[in-house]
Amino acid sequence: MQLYTGENKGKTTAAAGLALRALGNDMKVLFVQFMKSVFSGEVEMLKRCGDDRVEVLRKWDDSFIIGPPSDRQVALAESLWQETMAQIGRFAPDLLVLDEICVALHYGLLEEETVLKFLKNRPESLEVVMTGQGASQALIEASDLVTEMCKIKHYYDKGVLARKGIEY
Question: Is 0.85 surpassed by the pTM of this model?
Fold first, then answer.
Protein backbone atom coordinates (compact mmCIF):
# COMPACT_ATOMS: atom_id res chain seq x y z
CA MET A 1 0.00 0.00 0.00
CA GLN A 2 1.25 3.43 -0.94
CA LEU A 3 0.23 6.78 0.50
CA TYR A 4 0.92 10.21 -1.01
CA THR A 5 0.08 13.01 1.41
CA GLY A 6 1.12 16.56 2.28
CA GLU A 7 -0.05 20.06 1.51
CA ASN A 8 1.66 20.52 -1.83
CA LYS A 9 0.59 19.53 -5.33
CA GLY A 10 1.64 16.30 -6.96
CA LYS A 11 -0.26 13.61 -5.06
CA THR A 12 -2.86 12.86 -7.71
CA THR A 13 -0.26 13.33 -10.45
CA ALA A 14 1.98 10.72 -8.81
CA ALA A 15 -0.93 8.30 -8.49
CA ALA A 16 -1.96 8.89 -12.12
CA GLY A 17 1.63 8.29 -13.24
CA LEU A 18 1.69 4.99 -11.39
CA ALA A 19 -1.66 4.08 -12.97
CA LEU A 20 -0.23 4.79 -16.44
CA ARG A 21 2.79 2.63 -15.62
CA ALA A 22 0.47 -0.21 -14.56
CA LEU A 23 -1.57 0.13 -17.76
CA GLY A 24 1.66 0.03 -19.77
CA ASN A 25 2.32 -3.35 -18.16
CA ASP A 26 -1.13 -4.72 -19.05
CA MET A 27 -2.47 -4.35 -15.53
CA LYS A 28 -6.05 -3.36 -14.73
CA VAL A 29 -6.60 -0.09 -12.86
CA LEU A 30 -9.52 1.14 -10.79
CA PHE A 31 -9.05 4.90 -10.28
CA VAL A 32 -11.47 6.31 -7.71
CA GLN A 33 -11.71 10.03 -6.99
CA PHE A 34 -13.40 11.27 -3.85
CA MET A 35 -14.60 14.88 -3.74
CA LYS A 36 -13.68 15.57 -7.36
CA SER A 37 -15.94 15.93 -10.37
CA VAL A 38 -14.59 18.64 -12.67
CA PHE A 39 -12.61 17.82 -15.83
CA SER A 40 -9.02 16.74 -15.30
CA GLY A 41 -6.45 15.84 -17.91
CA GLU A 42 -5.10 12.86 -15.98
CA VAL A 43 -8.52 11.21 -15.79
CA GLU A 44 -9.09 11.86 -19.49
CA MET A 45 -5.75 10.26 -20.41
CA LEU A 46 -6.34 7.26 -18.19
CA LYS A 47 -9.62 6.65 -19.97
CA ARG A 48 -7.99 7.05 -23.40
CA CYS A 49 -4.98 4.86 -22.64
CA GLY A 50 -6.69 2.19 -20.65
CA ASP A 51 -9.63 1.17 -22.83
CA ASP A 52 -11.13 -1.86 -21.06
CA ARG A 53 -8.27 -2.08 -18.54
CA VAL A 54 -9.20 1.07 -16.63
CA GLU A 55 -12.30 2.08 -14.72
CA VAL A 56 -12.68 5.59 -13.31
CA LEU A 57 -15.22 6.21 -10.59
CA ARG A 58 -16.19 9.71 -9.46
CA LYS A 59 -19.23 10.94 -7.64
CA TRP A 60 -19.33 14.49 -6.30
CA ASP A 61 -21.56 17.53 -6.76
CA ASP A 62 -18.83 20.22 -6.94
CA SER A 63 -19.75 21.41 -3.44
CA PHE A 64 -17.31 22.63 -0.84
CA ILE A 65 -17.34 21.43 2.74
CA ILE A 66 -17.71 24.34 5.14
CA GLY A 67 -18.20 23.14 8.68
CA PRO A 68 -19.67 19.68 9.08
CA PRO A 69 -20.38 17.88 5.80
CA SER A 70 -23.99 17.77 4.63
CA ASP A 71 -25.98 14.57 4.59
CA ARG A 72 -25.80 14.70 0.79
CA GLN A 73 -22.01 14.93 0.81
CA VAL A 74 -21.73 11.97 3.18
CA ALA A 75 -24.18 10.00 1.04
CA LEU A 76 -22.17 10.72 -2.13
CA ALA A 77 -18.93 9.51 -0.53
CA GLU A 78 -20.55 6.44 0.99
CA SER A 79 -22.19 5.59 -2.33
CA LEU A 80 -18.85 5.90 -4.11
CA TRP A 81 -17.22 3.65 -1.49
CA GLN A 82 -19.91 1.00 -1.98
CA GLU A 83 -19.56 1.24 -5.76
CA THR A 84 -15.79 0.86 -5.38
CA MET A 85 -16.17 -2.29 -3.27
CA ALA A 86 -18.57 -3.78 -5.81
CA GLN A 87 -16.31 -2.85 -8.72
CA ILE A 88 -13.33 -4.56 -7.09
CA GLY A 89 -15.30 -7.80 -7.17
CA ARG A 90 -16.54 -7.35 -10.75
CA PHE A 91 -13.52 -5.74 -12.39
CA ALA A 92 -10.71 -7.41 -10.37
CA PRO A 93 -8.16 -4.59 -10.70
CA ASP A 94 -4.45 -5.03 -10.09
CA LEU A 95 -4.13 -1.42 -8.91
CA LEU A 96 -6.66 0.58 -6.91
CA VAL A 97 -6.16 4.33 -6.57
CA LEU A 98 -8.18 6.02 -3.82
CA ASP A 99 -7.59 9.64 -4.75
CA GLU A 100 -8.37 12.16 -1.96
CA ILE A 101 -9.36 9.39 0.45
CA CYS A 102 -7.41 11.15 3.21
CA VAL A 103 -9.50 14.30 2.78
CA ALA A 104 -12.75 12.31 2.69
CA LEU A 105 -11.73 10.64 5.96
CA HIS A 106 -10.66 13.93 7.51
CA TYR A 107 -14.09 15.43 6.87
CA GLY A 108 -15.88 12.35 8.16
CA LEU A 109 -17.39 11.44 4.80
CA LEU A 110 -16.31 7.85 5.39
CA GLU A 111 -15.58 5.88 8.53
CA GLU A 112 -11.84 5.33 8.90
CA GLU A 113 -12.48 1.97 10.57
CA THR A 114 -14.29 0.77 7.41
CA VAL A 115 -11.41 1.83 5.17
CA LEU A 116 -8.76 0.31 7.45
CA LYS A 117 -10.68 -2.97 7.61
CA PHE A 118 -10.84 -3.10 3.81
CA LEU A 119 -7.12 -2.35 3.52
CA LYS A 120 -6.26 -5.11 5.97
CA ASN A 121 -8.50 -7.65 4.22
CA ARG A 122 -8.05 -6.58 0.60
CA PRO A 123 -7.19 -9.17 -2.06
CA GLU A 124 -3.52 -10.06 -1.65
CA SER A 125 -2.68 -9.18 -5.26
CA LEU A 126 -4.30 -5.70 -5.07
CA GLU A 127 -1.87 -2.77 -4.94
CA VAL A 128 -3.53 0.23 -3.28
CA VAL A 129 -2.50 3.87 -3.68
CA MET A 130 -4.10 6.50 -1.47
CA THR A 131 -3.76 10.27 -1.76
CA GLY A 132 -4.79 13.42 0.04
CA GLN A 133 -3.77 16.01 2.56
CA GLY A 134 -3.86 15.23 6.25
CA ALA A 135 -3.31 11.47 6.28
CA SER A 136 -4.13 10.04 9.69
CA GLN A 137 -1.54 8.23 11.75
CA ALA A 138 -3.53 5.02 11.28
CA LEU A 139 -3.32 5.30 7.46
CA ILE A 140 0.38 6.10 7.66
CA GLU A 141 1.00 3.04 9.84
CA ALA A 142 -1.07 0.79 7.55
CA SER A 143 0.91 1.86 4.47
CA ASP A 144 4.11 0.29 3.18
CA LEU A 145 5.29 3.45 1.42
CA VAL A 146 4.49 6.99 2.54
CA THR A 147 5.53 10.08 0.61
CA GLU A 148 4.85 13.58 1.89
CA MET A 149 4.71 16.35 -0.70
CA CYS A 150 6.42 19.29 0.96
CA LYS A 151 6.36 22.78 -0.52
CA ILE A 152 9.65 24.60 -0.71
CA LYS A 153 8.44 27.18 -3.21
CA HIS A 154 5.19 27.49 -5.15
CA TYR A 155 4.00 29.87 -7.86
CA TYR A 156 0.54 29.98 -6.24
CA ASP A 157 2.17 32.24 -3.65
CA LYS A 158 2.71 34.78 -6.45
CA GLY A 159 -0.94 34.60 -7.48
CA VAL A 160 -0.60 32.11 -10.35
CA LEU A 161 -3.87 30.19 -10.56
CA ALA A 162 -4.39 26.59 -11.61
CA ARG A 163 -3.48 26.13 -15.26
CA LYS A 164 -5.09 23.75 -17.74
CA GLY A 165 -2.73 20.95 -18.63
CA ILE A 166 -0.51 21.60 -15.61
CA GLU A 167 -2.76 21.46 -12.54
CA TYR A 168 -5.80 19.82 -14.14
Answer: yes
| DSSP label of 123 | -
Residue 111 φ then ψ, to 5°: -85, 125
Q: How far apart are CA 164 and CA 160, in angstroms?
A: 12
Residue 134 backbone class (left: φ over 0; alpha: ψ -120 to 50; beta: rest): left
SS3 content of the chain, % helix, strand, coil (to 5): 45, 20, 40
Confidence of residue 159 (pLDDT cuts 50, 70, 90): very high
Structural domain includes residue 164 = no
Distance of CA 81 to CAs 1, 29, 34, 114, Å?
18, 16, 9, 10
Q: How many domains does the chain have?
A: 1
Cα dihedral 87→49→51→4 (10° resolution): 0
* Average of per-residue pLDDT across 100-126: 97
**Which residues form the domain of 144?**
2-158
Gap between the Cα atoms of 10 and 14, Å rounded: 6
CATH of the domain at 129: 3.40.50.300
Flag whether 167 is in a domain.
no
